[in-house]
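Need a sequence for this fold. Nothing fancy.
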C-alpha cells in the first residue's frame, strides 16, 4: 500500500509540474498583440524600448511592441511613422528582435 501511495504522489507531482510548464509555453505560441495602435504618431522620446517579433508559427503577423512609461503598446508595422521609429531604434536605441518567441525573463504582459 505504501509503495502505491508513493508512486501516486510522484505521478501527481510530475503531472502538476508538466501542466505548469506547458501552460507557460502556450503564452508564447500565440500572437502577443490583440489590437494595434494606428493613431497619432507617438513621440519617439516617450518610447523606452521597441521589440519586433517576426511572423512565424506562433503568429502570422509581424508584431511591434513599444514600451512606454505607462505600459506596453502594440504598433501597426505598416504605418510610416512606425517604420521611422523602428529605423531610429535600429540605428540608435534598444531594439530587441525575436524570431519565434520571447523567453520568460524577457516577456512583459501585454
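Here you go.
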Amino acid at each position: 500500500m505504501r509503495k502505491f501511495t508513493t508512486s501516486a504522489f510522484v505521478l501527481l507531482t510530475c503531472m502538476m509540474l508538466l501542466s505548469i510548464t506547458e501552460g507557460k509555453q502556450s503564452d508564447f505560441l500565440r500572437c502577443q498583440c490583440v489590437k494595434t495602435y494606428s493613431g497619432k504618431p507617438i513621440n519617439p522620446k516617450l518610447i523606452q524600448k521597441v521589440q519586433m517579433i517576426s511572423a512565424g508559427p506562433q503568429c502570422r503577423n509581424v508584431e511591434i511592441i513599444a514600451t512606454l512609461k505607462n505600459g506596453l503598446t502594440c504598433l501597426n508595422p505598416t504605418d510610416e511613422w512606425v517604420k521611422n521609429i523602428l529605423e531610429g531604434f535600429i540605428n540608435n536605441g534598444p531594439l530587441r528582435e525575436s524570431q519565434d518567441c520571447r523567453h520568460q525573463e524577457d516577456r512583459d504582459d501585454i
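For context: Residues 2-28 form the longest helix (27 residues).
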